Amino acid sequence: MRAICLFLLSSFLLLVSCTQEYVISGNSDISMHDGKTIYLRESQIRNQTHDIDSCTVQHGRFTFCGNTDTVMMVGLYMGAERVMPMVLEGGDVTIEISHLRTRLSGSRYNEKLNKFLADRNKILVKQDQLRRKCIEMLYRGSSEGEIDREITKPSVKLVKKLEKGESDFIKENFDNALGPGCFMWFFGQYPVPVITPQIQNILDGAPDSFKSHPYIREYIHRAKHTINHQ
To answer: Which residues are paired to 131 by β-bridges?
Structure first.
């Protein structure tokens, strides 16, 4: 009987030691968010999701708190709208959301993710500026040569820079939650899983531990199934 009690006690202590508390404090200055429900959501295979928690944005503020026994990538959602990705891990995390940017701070992986997303957002902003400029040039009646020189060529460079940044970041984080998490966030939104040249480049150098991740394994399986039935 004593041995059983000691076993149960040790099991409980092990469980407690593996569980960490998290507190996520958010602030949004987007007025349309006020009064809306914001979800902390985990992406799963076959484009399914699992709601971990939810709360209401009140006066621009929202808070999540709970316990987690693992480090994983999750996303903030307003209904079906994707707001931003983040890493669920023990500790205090602060989130700032505005029309111009989103910001994460307060924990190891979120600090790392925040720096990457900030650099990525700069490229996205430049892409949007080129799209606006293209529309203006079309209205002005600019020639194809002018549009190719001022819009098309810079756009191609930005796409390559964006893909390289995404790929490099995933490769640098093959061994932690950021690698498969960013893979899910960037490519999981495709209607049908496909192996693009960018994805193939990532998988070519990926260790088995990455490719055996449940989501990655399922994505590869479904993408190959799509190819075989074309």
So the answer is: none
Residue 2 sits at φ, ψ, to 5 deg, of -60, -40
Mean pLDDT of the chain: 87
Using one digit for the tens of pLDDT, what is the confidence trace for 151-193? 999 999 999 999 999 999 999 999 999 999 999 999 988 878 8
Report residue 151 as tokens: 């819009």
How far is it, in rounded angstroms, from Cα 48 to Cα 122?
30
CA distances from 29 to 64, 80, 128 (A): 18, 20, 22
Instruction: Provide, rounded to the nearest whole percent, the portion of the chain with pLDDT above 90.
Output: 62
Q: Starting from the edge strand earliest in sequence, which strands make up the sheet with 61-68, in order?
A: 61-68, 20-28, 91-97, 102-105
CB of 107 closer than 8 Å to CB of 89: yes
